[in-house]
Amino acid sequence: QKEVEQDPGPLSVPEGAIVSLNCTYSNSAFQYFMWYRQYSRKGPELLMYTYSSGNKEDGRFTAQVDKSSKYISLFIRDSQPSDSATYLCAMIKAAGNKLTFGGGTRVLVKP
Amino acid sequence: SAVISQKPSRDICQRGTSLTIQCQVDSQVTMMFWYRQQPGQSLTLIATANQGSEATYESGFVIDKFPISRPNLTFSTLTVSNMSPEDSSIYLCSVADPAGRNTQYFGPGTRLTVL
C-alpha cells in the first residue's frame, strides 16, 4: 500500500465549476502538506502549504487538512481552462525533509 | 520562494553515454534534491545533496549511476551515467524553502530521451 493515495483522474469539469481534489495518507507522522500544480512539460509549482488541520484560503484555492482522518483536499473555485493541469499532493514528516508525493490527478477544465 | 534553472532543458542521448544536468538557484539554500519523473508517473526522490557532504541516496539509486556534486550553496549537478532507454525520464531538482518552511521549490526539469 502506498503511503499517499490520490485518484489519478482525469477529472473533467466545465469552466466555472468547483474542482475538488483529495489525498489520503496512512502515516500520522506526516505533518506538513502541500499541493503542487504541474503543467505538461513543466516542473511542479507550489500552490498551497499547510501544517495544521483546518482550511487555508489563497484566492480561488482552498486547502483543507483533516489530520484525524488522514485526509487532505484542494478546492478550486470558478475554475478556468488555464487550471487544466496535473495536481500533486505532497507531504513531509515531522523532523524530516523528504517529500512524499501522491500519484497526481489530471484535471481538465472545458470552456 | 526560489527561482531555479536547469540545463539542459532537454536532450537526446545514445545508450552507454553520460549526461550531466546542472541546477542553479537564485539564493543560498542548505538542501537541494534530485527527482526523477517517468512518463505519466509521479516524482521519485533520487538523492538529497547538502553542500560540503556526500549526497544521500534513496533505495534503488546508487552513486555510481547517479553521481551528484554540490560545490556551493547555489549549484548542484546530477550525472546520469552509462545510460539505457530505461533512464528516459524528466529529471528535476528542487530546493528547500529559503524562508525555512518545510517545503520545496522545483526547477523546470530536464527531459531526457535515451535511444
Task: Provide a concise account of the structure shown.
Chain A is built from no helices and eleven strands.
Characterization of the model:
The complex is a heterodimer of chains A (111) and B (115). In chain A, 0% of the residues lie in helices and 57% in strands. With 111 residues, chain A is mainly β. In chain A, strands 2, 4, 5, 9, 10 and 11 form a 6-stranded mixed sheet that branches. Chain A has a 5-stranded antiparallel sheet with strand order 1-3-8-7-6, with no helix packed on it. The model of chain A has no long low-confidence stretch (mean pLDDT 94). In chain B, the strands form 2 sheets. In chain B, strands 2, 4, 5, 6, 9, 10 and 11 form a 7-stranded mixed sheet that branches. In chain B, strands 1-3-8-7 form a 4-stranded antiparallel sheet, with no helix packed on it. In chain B, a hairpin with a 5-residue loop joins strand 5 and strand 6. The chains are: A mainly beta (111), B mainly beta (115). Chain A binds chain B through residues 31-32, 34, 36, 41-46, 49, 51, 88, 92, 97-99, 101-104, and chain B through 1, 4, 31, 33, 41-43, 45, 48, 92, 94, 96, 101-109, 111.
Q: Mind sketching the topology for me?
A:
The complex is a heterodimer of chains A (111) and B (115).
Chain A: E1 4-6, E2 11-14, E3 19-25, E4 30-38, E5 45-50, E6 54-58, E7 61-66, E8 71-76, E9 85-93, E10 100-101, E11 105-110
Parallel strand pairs in A: 2-11
Antiparallel strand pairs in A: 1-3, 3-8, 4-5, 4-9, 6-7, 7-8, 9-10, 9-11
Chain B: E1 4-7, E2 10-13, E3 19-25, E4 31-37, E5 43-50, E6 56-57, E7 68-72, E8 75-80, E9 89-96, E10 104-106, E11 110-114
Overall morphology of chain B: globular
The helix-strand sequence of chain B is EEEEEEEEEEE
What coarse outline of chain A follows from CA principal-axis ratios?
Answer: globular
Number of strands of chain B: 11
Helix count of chain A, per DSSP?
Answer: 0
**DSSP strand tally of chain A:** 11
Q: Which structural class is indicated by helix and strand composition of chain B?
A: mainly beta
Look at the structure and give the mean pLDDT of chain B: 94
Amino- and carboxy-terminal Cα gap of chain A? 37 Å
Q: Helix proportion of residues of chain B, in percent?
A: under 10%
